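Exam prep: given the inputs below (a chain plus beta-D-glucopyranose), describe the expected output before reading on.
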Amino acid sequence: MVYIGIDLGGTGIKIGLVDETGKILCKGETPTGVGRPYEEIIGDMGQCMLKVMGDNGYKADDIAAIGIGIPGIADTDGNVIFCTNMGWKNVPLSAELRKYLDKPVYIDNDATVAGFAEYICGVSAGTHSSVFLTLGTGVGGGIVIGGRPWSGFHGIGSEVGHIPMDIGGVPCTCGNDGCLERYTSATAIIRMGKERMSQYPDSLLNQLCENNPDKLTAKMVFDAAKVNDEAGLRVFNEYVDYLARACYTVITFLDPEVIVLGGGVSKAGDFLLDAVRARIPSYLIFKDLPYSRIEIASLGNDAGIIGAAMLGRPAKEA
Ligand code: BGC
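Solution:
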């Protein structure tokens, strides 16, 4: 049997057919077009799903289930309750999608499914417990304990990005302020980079974005830091400090075997990993005891599709 995995993001909807081991057999993509009525967005999702199936010779009978990773939370009846960065509230995602293919639909948080994928066939494969942190437009958390995703009793348990980090701090899209994701996301790197650009007008940061703050990306900030540009380095060091504290928060609260850094920012690889690993010990309270291994995700952009698809795989096979 084959499982459909759908990764719903703010920019694109990625859809793949996945086998029981987590291997992607074929995939496709369609733009999300945030802001349109949800029926249209889910309609494009449904059409794209049928096209990926048709183009690759799969029929409805070949499909066991559909799994969807969303940048928010859903209830157990398949309704999206809250998707802050997409502006969705109470959207009947499962019911709408079943109009296109009538199969069981499983929905979970995007970071949760990415963490599940890393557990199945990525860097945290087979671990006792893991927490995945996706560092992108927002910051999400994915907890896997004993081989199954853990989203809490009410389904809201892994919203790491909205842990308060600074009372009265930077306003968040969720309505609160000072949330962890305001300091550890790609969005945060860009915000901090823009602040440093005006403070250091001759910096490499300014050159890289042609003196246009609107063109600044998180990658430009890290590229500047790598060659010791002062503005870039200040942002990088500040960012690493926040991220190390985020990891420390996870360690203190949950003590997982491994913390996996994923999402766009994690593409910085060892440059980021080495700095975060070096920073964490200064925060630990039990300095002589072992603590969570910190790793970079290994499945890249495919994690969302794989983990979503595997939500539909029976638990006993996990
Ligand atoms: C949302 C999370 C999501 C994360 C990454 C956060 O703002 O609250 O649910 O996992 O962004 O998309």
